[in-house]
Every structure is written in C-alpha cells, then in structure tokens.
Amino acid sequence: MVWRQHRIIRLNIVVLLYLMVCFVLCPVSAMTVSSPAEVHSVRGNAVTLTCTFTSTSRATSRMSVDWSYRPQTGGPPQAFFHFSSLAFPPQDGQFNGRVKWLGSPARGEASIQLLNASLSDNGTYTCSVRNPPDVHGSPTSQTVLTVTPKVPTVRFSDVAVLLAFILLPSAIITLALLGRMCCPPRDKSQTQGYHSPIEVTPGDEPGFKQINRKEKNMTCCDLYFLVWPFFFFCS
C-alpha cells in the first residue's frame, strides 16, 4: 500500500512538472490585426475598408470578425457587420444593403466594401478579429473614413460640342462681317461706264487711277489671313 501511494505521488509530480514546462516554454500565441489609419473616398463611389490579421492558429469555424462604426460627431460604436463561417450583413440602419464581404480567413483577410459612400458615413470603423486559442495581442484595429463631395468635371465631348456649335459659327459670321465692311461692293456705273477714247486717253482717267489705288489696299484674303490666327488661338 505504501509503495502504491508513493508511486501515485511521483506520477502527480511528473504531470505537474510537465504542465509547468509546457506553460513556460509554450505560451499562448498572440494575434495582430492591422488596417490603414485613414481612407479617403468620393461620394457615390465604393470604398474598401481593409483589415488583415496574423495568427499562429489555423482559421476555423470558431473564428469571428466584427465591424463597428462610430460617427464623426461622436457617440458609442455601433456594430453593423458580423462574420462567423458566414457573412451576416446589416438588416437595417444606414448600412443596410451597402456592405459587401471581401474577406478570406484562410489568407488572413477580413476586409469589407462599403457601396455608394455618402457624407454621413464619415467616422471611425473598427475591425475586431477573434481566432481561438489566440486570445492575446491586439485583436482590433481602427480606420478613419473621410468622404468628400464629388467635384464636377468638364468632359472632352462637352468642349467639342461647345466649339462646334458656338465658337465656330461665331468666328465664321465675324469674318464674313469684317470682309463685307472692308470690301464693299463696287459701283457698276463707275467701273463699267462708257468713256470716249477721244476725250480721255486710256490710262489717264482719274477714276481708273483711283480704282486701281483702291485695289491695292487690303483685300478680304489679306484680312482673313490676318484675323484667323486670333480665332484659332481663342478657340
């Protein structure tokens, strides 16, 4: 009997020592969760909230992911998304129908996508990951989302339509008016009038000299080549 009691005591001591060695040499592993500190988006676009985690234990059905949101105006966090083997998107509230699961636990990803971002989505988003037995470390990470209004932009097609239907006709009309002002129609009575060869010697009539001097002035073609670079530059 005494021999058996000593044997049981020794066995208990060995088991206790083994547990102590395992506790000291094999501590419970820790996990880390990381995400970008800030994310910027434009209203109406889809924005990805990235969340990654590292764990020494393989992801199983016991792993869970929770996303919570705290408005920019302050207040307590509001949980709106949960994943545990399956994705459970929000059924009501401002995120209803706007959250898409992009995570892959096997690759250490727990990201989501927020569709049709609005200004009311500005705030802090917290990603929490749990993967037992990894219970130590930093299982949460935060991201500040900033959504800005969309700035209207002028497309090339709009500029082309503006040039084709406004500036180009205006330039043509302006050139036509300038040509009419600088090149008035000639009086047929003066240019085609009959003159006696006896009274006036060809080449000595003052009217012909005056007309010839007018013809040497700036023509419509000269005016066109002088003005068209200006309209080309303005257009």
From TrEMBL:
Report the residue ranges that make up the Ig-like domain in this protein: 27-146
Q: Supply the alphabetized keyword list.
A: Disulfide bond, Glycoprotein, Immunoglobulin domain, Membrane, Signal, Transmembrane, Transmembrane helix
Upper taxonomic lineage: Eukaryota, Metazoa, Chordata, Craniata, Vertebrata
Q: Which PROSITE patterns match?
A: IG_LIKE
Superkingdom classification of source = Eukaryota
Q: Where in the cell is it found?
A: Membrane
Q: What is this protein called?
A: Ig-like domain-containing protein
As given in the record, the signal peptide range reads: 1-30
GO CC list: plasma membrane
| Membrane topology recorded in Swiss-Prot or TrEMBL | Single-pass type I membrane protein
Q: Which organism is it from?
A: Oncorhynchus mykiss (Rainbow trout)
Q: Where are the transmembrane segments?
A: 159-178
